[in-house]
Each structure stands twice: as C-alpha cells, then as structure tokens.
Batch of 3 targets.
Target 1
Amino acid sequence: MKRILFIFSAILLFTTVSCVDNYKTKTAKDKNGYSYEYVVNDPVNTRIYTLDNGLKVYMAVNTDEPRIQTYIAVKAGSKNDPRETTGLAHYFEHMMFKGT
C-alpha cells in the first residue's frame, strides 16, 4: 500500500511540475477605453482589469449560460498578519465573507 501511495504521489508531483507553463500577457483596451491584460492563447479569453486601488478583476464572458459567477481571492492570511496585530486575517475573513 505504501508503495502504491509513493508511486501515485510521484506521478502527481511530476504532472503538477510538468503542467507549469510560461505564459505571456499582453495589454489592450476595451471598447470603453479601459485597459486590461490578457493571457495569449487563453481558451476562455479572460480579461484582467486592475482597479485604481490595486484590486484585480478577472472577467470571462460565457454566453452559453445566462448567469454571473464571482470569486474573491484575497492576499491575506495568518502569514501576512503584522506582528503587532495577530489575528487580523481571521477577523478580516469574518467581516468579508461571513458578515459577523
């Protein structure tokens, strides 16, 4: 069993490392004049807008399904807590995502 687990882990590690591609981004403007970045050869044509406050918005249009879906990625966590205010990331998580 340990041998199978080791082989599976090695295959998983190899495929993860080999799947890392170097991608190239370019800059363009939309029809309203807003600048955005995009990754060359992206199959879903995702646009990456950067707001004035530094927040990045990733937008991909899917005309097959009439709905909107959002994700929020926050560069915050316990490793990013300032020494003088430990627990700040956990508090931020509750305020942003749980409303408590």
Note: The longest strand covers residues 25-29.
Target 2
Amino acid sequence: MEFDRLVSVLKEASLPKRIEMLEIIRDSGENGIEHSKLNELVKNGLGLPPSTFYRSLNNMFSLGLIRKDDDKIYLTPIGTLLIDAIQCINDLLEFEYLDIASAFVLTIPPEMRFGVRYIKECKKVDITETSRLVYDLIAGVEKGGKYIDRIIDPDLYALMLKKRKECATEKVISSVDTVIPRLNAEIEAAKKTNFDRDTIEELEEKLEIKVLDLPLQLGVIDERIGVIMFLKDKYFTPIFITEDKKAVRWMDSVFDYYWDMAEPLDKYLEGGMEGWKRRVVEAVS
C-alpha cells in the first residue's frame, strides 16, 4: 500500500509544472499562500490553464503533499521532503565530481548522502594550493579540529603541537598504512618544538587517534570551517572549503559517523594511545 502511494506521488511529481507549483507553495513559508495568489502565479508564471491547476491541487491534496486551511495552501511534511529530495538529487547530478565522490557516498547512511549537495556551494581549491591552505587553516585553529587525512608532515605536526599548547584539541582518523609514518612524524615534530618531556606528555593527552581506511580527506576546524576532498582509487577531487553553517554541520556529522565506526589505535600500535604517547615522550631529550 505504501509503495503504491509512493508510485502515485512520484507520478504526480513527474507531470509538467508540478514541482514548480510545490516550490511556489514552499517558498511562501510557514504562512502559506492564498489560493487566488497561487492560481495567479501558476497561470502567469507556469502557463497552466485553470482546469489543470485545480486538478493538480486536488491530486496533491489527496496524496498528502499539500493541505488546505481556509483560503490558504501549505506544504505538508511529505511535500517538503519530496521537494528537498528532488532538489538534492538535482544538485548531485550537477556535481562534476560525482563519480569520484560515489565511493564516499556509498559508505555513509542514506540520510546523510544528500549532504553532498553542499559541496556545490563550497570554494574549490586547486591541488597546487593544498599545502599552503592546510598550514593556514592549522595556524588559525583556536579550539580544535577533527581530521580524516593521510598527511605525514613533521613541520605541520609541530605547528599542531604548538596549537595544542594554546588549548586546541585534535581527533584524527588515520588510514591503516599511515599509522606508523604518522607516529614517526609526530616524534620528529616533538623534537622540532624543543618542548620538554612534561609539556609533550601534556600535549599528547589532547590528541585522540582512531583508524579506518576511507575514500576522503576531511577537516572540521573550530566547528566553523569545513574542508573535504574525495578519493577513489588513484583519482581525487580538488579540495572544497566552506564556512557555511549547514555544510560544516554536515561534515561534522560525517566525521562523527566514521569516528564511531573507526577502530581503536591499539589494534595497530602496541599500547594504543598510551603506547603512542610513551614513544613520543621518550624520544624527546
């Protein structure tokens, strides 16, 4: 029964100008739109004759896409979800890197997949500017960051240690093959800072690492800046960066989803985070 209703909803939505009608109703906001005003807008803007207009309204009402209250028309939650889903699909189809991003899309739950639409509004950064961008972002960290990356750079890690000394915290999801190189780079970075052992031990407490191989690199900084790059086999997209609140929240939720899935470090490094901290601290003279 529910499947039959879905078929009917999609069939109605596929008819000419139906989506545009629903968008007009949605854009009217919580106060709805007067029947006469909608009729005028549809007639003048969409070119639908009155008979088609009334038949469409009746069909959408019977399918639960709209509701009527006195002389006003409103979208129902189902109608709103339909319009949002169609807009999301359209945005995804227009995303030029969808093929590469598909490896990522398939790893997240359905309810999170439409968030890829936010990438369309992000600033695209060429790969040649990646290093400078990463350093600038880390230099600006105030509270902390969440990262999914394969970056092995002692100088960058030294900068991150200094930011931790300024109260920043870090949560990192490392790929399996970069766990040991990451540790070695952290040791080298700790030596570069010239911090004493007590300071390094304190700073390593502000770092959490889990392990999971993923088809993306991602950063959420101070809960206000989001950075993402998609990976598939030997291919990768440009870096996308944004300060849009919805996009950053989506990236943050993506990180948290993977964080729950990721494995503890002790599966790949003896002693886990304590073993990590011990090795780094002992390497500092």
Note: The chain has a mean pLDDT of 91.
Target 3
Amino acid sequence: MLINKNTFSNKLLNKYIYWSGIITLLFILITSYVNYVNKHFPEQIYITEQSDTSINLSLPVTGSVHNTQNGTNNSLANADFSREVTFITGSPGSYHIDLHLFGFLFLKTVNVNVVDEKYVYPCGFQAGLYLKSSGILVVKTDSIESKSSGTITPCENIITKGDYILKINDEEINSKKQLSCKVNECAGEKLNIELLRNDEIINVTVTPVEDKNSEYKLGLWVKDDAQGIGTITYIDTDYNYAA
C-alpha cells in the first residue's frame, strides 16, 4: 500500500496545529483563571483581636497558615477556601497564609494582621493651620525685562527651586515684603545671599536687575509662611487624627 508523503506530512502538520491550539487555549484559560482567583485575595488582611471572622469564597484554593518566631517558621493550620473558613483570633500578631490553587499551584502569600480594636470619634469641626518656615522658599527662577539690557535672568545657575533664602547682607529675611525692600535698597549693587540648600548653608552673590518700572528685582518667585483652614474629620483613642 502506497502512502503519499505529502498527504502524510499534511496530516502531521494538521495534528501539530490542532494540539498546539489546544495547549495554547488551555494555557490561556488556566492563566486567566489563576489571575481571577489571585484578585480575590488581598496582599494584607486586618482582623481585630478576640474576634471571629468568616470568609466564603468557594474557590479551589488551599492555604497553610504559619508565623515566624525567633527565626523559626511555625506551621499552625491548613485552610480550604472551597468552603467557608472562620478565623478565630487571639492576641495581636502577624501571620502568613501560603495559598495554592488546586492544592499544588502556588498563588501568593497573604499577610494576616491581628490588631487592637480601635474607636474613633467623629468631629467635623474647623481648625486653623499656620506653617512657619525658616527663611523664604524659592518656588521658581524667572527672567526680567531690564530697563536697558533686554531680558536677563540674574539668578540663573545661582539660586534654584527649593532653596531657602535665610539672609541678605547678613540680615535675616522672614517675609516676601522684607525681601523686596532689601533688594530695592541695594540700588543695583551686588547682594550677598545666604541660602539653605539640601540641609547645607551656602553663600552666593547676585546682582539685582532694574526693570522697566525702575524697580530692582532678582527674578525669583518665592513663598513665605503658609496659612489656611482645615476640617478635623475624626480623632482616635491614641489622639491620632485625620483632616
């Protein structure tokens, strides 16, 4: 009996394509299901002490509960999440659950934190806020249209965003108004400026520029003390609050 080689090769190729498609489809289905199951388990679970908490996920996932004490990994219990699981907690502590899909495919480790029961007191009242800064914060450097020399950026590569202006000519600067007055008083003479940059005190020299309105400027956008009104949302028993 003669068998056409081309026919035989085509049959092998068709089988290869068929089984490759089946395997690829199974891989996609399993991966999708693993991701679906994985999303149902958070990274962290918080449970209050001395309480009973039940979880009913109806998923083919098992978990081994353990904790670590004095460098030793202690296995405590096993859980089957295909049925309802009840956690009965004691004193505060941290535990870990290693999850496996179908009992053998590792999914992830979930951290279970048993914490003290806390109470919060709702407030809703307003509170005034005032932020006192040391020096004047530089927000931005800018160019100035000078009276005689076109556009100039006097602080370029000298003073940068995030710097704090502490002193000018050895005089402490505490407000934007004081800074403006000090710059105008110089009448175009060089200023010795003390800055705080990245927790380090540095000294620089800058020559103010006279603008078209005959005012002397450094070409800086600055901020001094901040203030505002906020709302206290709640206070807990440890005097922590949210606003």
Note: Residues 98 and 109 are 5 Å apart (CA to CA).
